Amino acid sequence: MTATTYADQLAFDREHLWHPYTSMTSPAPVRLVTGASGARLRVADPARGEVELVDAMSSWWAAIHGYRHPVLDAAVSAQVGDFAHVMFGGLTHAPAIRLGERLVEITPDGLDHVFLADSGSVSVEVALKMVLQHQRGTGRPERTRLLTVRGGYHGDTFHPMSVTDPDGGMHSMWRGVLPEHVFAPQPPAADATGAEVSAWADAVRALVAEHARELAGIVVEPLLQGAGGMHPYPVECLRLLREVADEHDLVLVFDEIATGFGRTGHLFVSELVTPDVLCVGKALTGGYVTLAAVLTNGRIAAGISASESGVLMHGPTFMGNPLACAVALASIDLLLDGDWTAEVDRINRRLTAGLAPLRDLPGVADVRTVGAVGVVQLDHDVDVAGATDASVAAGVWLRPFRDLVYAMPPYVTSDAELDVLLGGITEAVKAG
């Protein structure tokens, strides 16, 4: 029987559909979205019918242009009129070619080989395969471990889980099953002193030297660690990682799935320090269709081709999906044709000023912003249900986790909507 009423749909959802990080036997409550436009979601409310909420999450940081943007809608519609999908094995198509051209053009010089992956987590899988195959192709098959840092998060599939913090991260239950890699200390905070950065650098250098013969590469989220704790850190740490990678013939991977396309105030953090492999996703399609990309340079590509397989050993069914490529191209052009730097700066200034008073609230441990990201860290784990209810009552959709109440709004969010958003964060912090 088809669920028709809001109540029926939610009842079916509760009994049959898994949501991220939830129990099937004791599911967390969900809200039914009935529409979306701009920076707002329309949500069914049992008491009030439907309500509009300012989306502080950009649908997990992807919908940078908001919802139902006419340019992106038109790109999807036009591509459907041609074809929605063809296999990428033995075939190619204009949307993939144009997207590849655009990605090579807007990323740092030298990152001119592009693998179009299914999702952010899969792009990290592919990147780590690149690292390992490159080492095999250059005659160092014994190099099978990776160096990363505490506090990181790289996805939910198995190899990305293995380079996510094994203690403080979300995947500690898989210890003993996942490959064991080498974890350096978490980088110091963005406002760290020179002495703190130097101490961290010394620890990393010593760790790399200790494990150099078995290390294949380094993988980090540059400048801002995302789901591991919304932790910004100094660019000097990235420069140090570039140095030690060069000194020990390691492949440096930047996971810019969350930070790419302007979120930190840089189009890519890789503009500041260039990696050997770059992963992008989330905002790549403006939140319309799942797609990610892995870019690398000619040196790494040559090493992969020299490995015993002679090819990069990955090829998903929906690789280079034309719909996703078409809307990604439109999203990139929409971003670059507008004044995205001014928009991100505007959001940063509003978040910085609006969140500052929350430092004085009971239970608040820290308040920080970077680019179009605002974070309130509590001194205890958030009461997610209570904080969510409080923010929704204030007209805002938030998704707190661990000890964090944070916002990564769409760049199109107006000043008035940002004020509503700040009110929602305040209520969530008070309730959390």
The end-to-end distance, rounded to whole angstroms, is: 39 Å
Radius of gyration: 22 Å
Structural class category: alpha/beta
Total strands: the figure is 16
Molecular structure report:
- It contains 13 helices and 16 strands.
- Strand 5 (145-149), helix 6 (158-162) and strand 6 (182-184) form a beta-alpha-beta unit.
- The chain has helices at 6-16, 58-61, 70-82, 94-106, 120-137, 158-162, 194-211, 235-247, 298-305, 322-337, 340-355, 384-393, 415-431; strands spanning 33-37, 40-45, 49-55, 113-117, 145-149, 182-184, 215-220, 224-225, 231-232, 251-255, 277-280, 292-296, 364-370, 373-378, 396-397, 404-407.
- Helix 4 (94-106) runs parallel beside helix 10 (322-337).
- The longest helix is centred in the first third of the chain and has 18 residues, at 120-137.
- It is globular and about 65 Å long.
- The protein is of the alpha/beta class and 432 residues long.
- The mean pLDDT is 96.
- The protein starts with 5 loop residues before the first helix and ends with a helix.
- The strands form 4 sheets. It has a 7-stranded mixed beta sheet, sandwiched between helices. The protein has a 4-stranded mixed beta sheet with strand order 1-2-3-15.
